[in-house]
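User: Quick one: structure for sequence A, then sequence B.

Assistant: Sequence A:
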Amino acid sequence: MWEPVIDLGEICNIPRPKKENGCKILMASRLISVAIKFVIGFGARDSLQSIPVNKLRPDEAWKVFVQKVGEPITSKPAIKPFAKEVHRKCDGLPLAIVVIGGTMSTRETEGEWKDALRELDQSASNLGGIEEEVFSRLIFSFEKLEPIEQSLFLSCCLFPEDHNINKEKLVDFAIGEETLFGIHQLGDMRNKIDVLVGKLRNSSMLDDGDYFDSVKLHDVMRELGIWITSLSTSNNYHSKFIPKAGVGIIKAPDASEWYKALRISLINNYRIESLPQLPNQCPQLHTLLLLGISFIKDIPQVNFLDHMPALRILDLSSCFEILRFCQTFYTSMEM
């Protein structure tokens, strides 16, 4: 259920659930708030029992995956290690296991499985069936979010896979993007982020992180966000993101991609050695995350930051060469 609009008492003449009459009602929703409003409307608030539908355990997930792919394929010695890795990337999400398993049921060679892993590493939407069967369903959850909640969710997609995102980072993002209109005190901003994170958790869009005050994205939810930000702006979604965090690239995206981007994340791509020369302005770019690019050697010396008039968020943590460049850049501007 997406909305608490059904009156079962009127439609089905179902009695109010009580221990005495043995009546029980089972409903499913991604939104806890919908379940609560539904039972309140039905006059059964005291009878509500929440049963979270958790991810499948690894052994259960593997069993389902083998059923969908076919044991003759997954049991092949040359394929089994790759099948295990593809199964791991589903991260226990039944819908992803079923769809990806069905897709892989026709791939019987080692090369095909290696290619599937490559596609999953680059973007799950490249693999047949994911976009139509998984993302097209999950996007409804995204559309049910308020704009400020959508923005926060998409910000989380800029971090690497399985990354523990400190909520203080989300506060920084909200300040830089000016999404917390009318809130001026830092403590109030932190409280608001707590509220928004709670709503995203209740909508199953965010998970608890491994550390205090941190959150994580399920791999499939992160891929959903990346897919959303790659859609055409004519679909009324957000301008293009370039979320390349932690993917092991050795070359930064081409300058033509920077021109179109709203947010760029190259976090923890340690092997990148240079950034592109930008011949034109990047009029929309307001978030640039270069955290952890520690071995960069070549930084454009002409108008690099000047080409980013809308830049609001710039993260250069552990980028010592870039920090030295920026210090020189701003010193020259003051002279």
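Sequence B:
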Amino acid sequence: MAPGVELGFAAAAEGPGAAWRLRSTYFPSKVGGRPAWLGEAGLPGPAALRCGRCQQPCAFLLQLYAPLPGRPDAFHRSLFVFACRSPACYRPPGPRGPFRVFRSQLPRRNDTYPEEPPPEEPPPGPAPAPPRRLGSGAALCRVCGCLGPRCCGRCRRAAYCGPEHQALDWRRGHRRSCDQHAAGEYEILIEPEEPEFPADSTDDEQEAEDTSKDTKEQEELGAAGTADEAFQSLDEKTLEAMAKHETEEEKIFRMFKNQTAAEPEQIIRYCRGGEGPLWVSGENRPEEKDIPNCVCGAKRIFEFQIMPQLLNHLQVDSLGESIDWGTLVVYTCAESCGGGSEYLEEFIWKQDYSMGCTL
């Protein structure tokens, strides 16, 4: 039986009542702030976290805790998504571009976490601040939480992944204080999708297809009687192709809106090994050849997608103005290979809305 779709929702995690759940020891799924790294070994360095277009360092976007049942080597498993701050890098659609995705997994018995699950109750005392160093002593960037080999020349305490984040932090207020913490974190709450009319899905699709055919026929009849001189030179086959393309786009976008209408605040759709992504357009959808195999040689499969509603929760100061997407689709190694203790890069595809289609 194929797994069902699970939905993720952003819940504010500010204050001592919730922030404790966003630390690594509680295996969180979260948006914003700094990454709560799973394994401490083999973290991606500054070079691996640069935008594929402008080569500037990416910011942490979100992480998803996604263990694989029945896989002892993936008892703990998390996926980390990073995004560029520059709006210009979001204009071209397609693979990677302004995004980076990394996967880390650990067996139940490991050197970092106890074998028993973490307690459900918050720890005593105030919630701990995001760590500045790993257990090994390696410093973490104050801005993005990645490895920080560079440090502030004045206080010698604030670490950075590179000069770009050091300059950004200086403008944000490091000149006044070395103790400010990242804000704007959200916990991602996961729950199964409950389809409203599961028995009627086939009928709905057939009705949408019939409606599309009727619309096409009406448009062809209308075009024959009302076409002006500018279109008289187009033959019937060309007009039919134009009408079919338009109605197919409308159909796909209508299905996207209908599918998300019951839970309009969803920011994640997760379904590894089940049904594929929910596309917003018929254009710019990857073919099998567009999705590269994993470094181990295995194919990559769809695991989850990031919905456009996430944009409502992002701080402009963190990721810049006018960034946009229709959906972000993450593909991961079908075998979820271990790769030792390193973080392995996976594949992400950005699809935008087609012209004339907006939420």
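Residues 178-182, 198-203 have pLDDT under 50 and may be disordered. The first strand starts at residue 6 and ends at 12.

User: Thanks, that's what I needed.
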